[in-house]
Amino acid sequence: MQCRAGCAACCIAPSITSPIPGMENGKPAGMRCIQLDGDDRCRLFGDPRRPAVCGSLQPSLEMCGNGRAHALRFLDRLEAMTSP
Q1: What does the alpha-carbon distance between residue 13 and residue 30 come to, in Å, rounded to a whole number?
Q2: CB-side neighbour CA atoms (13 Å) of 52
Q3: What backbone phi and psi angles, to 5 degrees, belong to 61?
Q4: CA angle 45-50-54, nearest 5°?
Q5: What percent of the chain has pLDDT over 70?
Q6: What are the pLDDT digits (tens) for 24-83?
Q7: Would 51 disulfide with which of 2, 11, 18, 84, CB 3.0-4.6 Å?
Q8: How many CB atoms lie within 10 A of CB 27?
Q9: Is the dihedral of CA 33, 41, 47, 66 positive or negative?
Q10: Cβ pair 65, 37 in contact under 8 A
Q11: Distances (CA, A) of 58 to 18, 24, 25, 75
C-alpha cells in the first residue's frame, strides 16, 4: 500500500521522542510535525535526519483504512496503548 497524498496522519497523531530538525525535543502526540510542507508531505523523507520511528510506520489497510480520519483514530489508539 502507498501513502495517500495529503494524509499525514502518521506525522500528526504519534508522539516522537527523538529530535526532529526544528523540533529538537521531538513532538507530542496530536501536534503537526514542523517538517510537513503545505501539501502535507514530509520534507525529511529520505533524509538521514528523519527519525527512525517515522520510517518504521508503513502504510497498511489496518492503519490507513479508507482515509485520514481512520488513520488518525487508529494512531491515536496505538499512542494511548503504548504511552507510559
Answers
A1: 4
A2: 2
A3: -60, -40
A4: 80
A5: 100
A6: 999 999 999 999 999 999 999 999 999 999 989 899 999 999 999 999 999 999 999 987
A7: 18
A8: 21
A9: positive
A10: no
A11: 18, 24, 23, 12
pLDDT at residue 1 above 90? no
Q: How far apart are alpha carbons 9 and 81 in whole angstroms? A: 17
Q: Which residue has better confidence, 64 or 1?
A: 64
For the four alpha carbons of 15, 26, 33 and 59, in that order, the dihedral sign comes to negative
Bridge partners of residue 23, in order along the sequence: 20
pLDDT digits (tens, 9 = 90+) for 9-25: 999 999 999 999 999 99
Query: Which of 56, 47, 60 has its CA nearest to residue 7?
Result: 60
Cα(65)–Cα(60) distance, integer angstroms? 8
- C-alpha cell of residue 32: 503537526
